[in-house]
Amino acid sequence: MNLIQLIYGSNVMRIDEKAASISKQYVGEPDDFNLITLNYKETPVEALIEEAQTLPFLSDKKALIINDVFSFTGARVKSDVNHDIDLLLEYISNKNDDTLIIFKVFNEQLDKRKKLTKLIQKNGQVTEISEMTENELLEYIKKNLQEENINMSDETAQLFLHRTGMNYTVVTNELRKLMLYVDDNVTNQDVEEIVSISLEQNIFKLTEYILNGRKTEAVQLVRELILQKEEPMQLLHLIISQFRLLYQVKLLMGEGFQQDYIARELKVHPYRVKLAQREVRRYQQNVLEEKMVKCRDMDYRFKSSYLDRETLFELFLLEI
Prior knowledge:
CATH superfamily of the largest domain: P-loop containing nucleotide triphosphate hydrolases
Distance between the termini: 58 Å
Radius of gyration: 24 Å
Number of domains: 3
Strand order of the largest sheet: 2-3-4-1-5
Mean pLDDT: 91
Strand content: 5-15%
Catalytic activity: DNA(n) + a 2'-deoxyribonucleoside 5'-triphosphate = DNA(n+1) + diphosphate
Organism: Corticicoccus populi
CATH topology of the largest domain: Rossmann fold
InterPro entries: DNA_pol3_clamp-load_cplx_C, DNA_pol3_delta-like_C, DNA_pol3_delta_N, DNA_polIII_delta, P-loop_NTPase
Keywords: DNA replication, DNA-directed DNA polymerase, Nucleotidyltransferase, Transferase
Number of strands: 7
Low-confidence stretches: none
Order of helices and strands: EHEHEHEHEHEHHEHHHHHHHH
EC number: 2.7.7.7
Number of helices: 15
Helix content: 55-70%
CATH architecture of the largest domain: 3-Layer(aba) Sandwich
């Protein structure tokens, strides 16, 4: 096993799982002596290297996991410490200890122009953790259910996925709840009673209500979201983002592009594009443009008005 590992991606839970799997493979059963976890934002490079070079206590092997190592990316991140990158370069170039070191990077991309990134690609093992596809998530759901001898139909699995969206963390947490609730079979009713609807899916439903003129249902949904501590300003920006996605998908579909290409071009999950395609087929381009203009105007009113934002938001839903 390469003793220098870098794991990167936007899915924090899957990165954590991968790091845990690699460290367990190296040290065996992890404990407080053979597995150390540090945060790059709080721990200087000197301390990280010192920990890596310190012999393990009451153990034959040792793994060091370092969280949120932003120096491998182009992101500007506020940190409590100033890191000596030259020292880190020297350590990676001449590593001579037996500690497994795992750098976790919570970003979709590495900055491949940096010396640090080039060096770890040469001397270490780099693993990208991509978002799971719709089919992969469905297989993941069924696999977990089968391990507990629980059945779920394809229709119910689709309903579960629709309520949770394509977020692996949400899917995992809601699946655990569901498995605690049911005995040996999951029904649509079980999913509707137990599984929470993700914010992303609520925003999709809200834009659907707006496009279909279902103002009463839109206001009711927003009131429910605000009771869940969602901020009106954040909800407005999410609606704007969703309308922008619908508009872009409409344009690209008109040029003959397919789902996978559109997802790559817009840098969104293919499942979101799939739902958007299903929705925009029913609307003309000018309708989506009008909604985006009204969203822009409301954004200005939010920032310039002294009126209560919850009231403003409900007015917006009645006007749009």
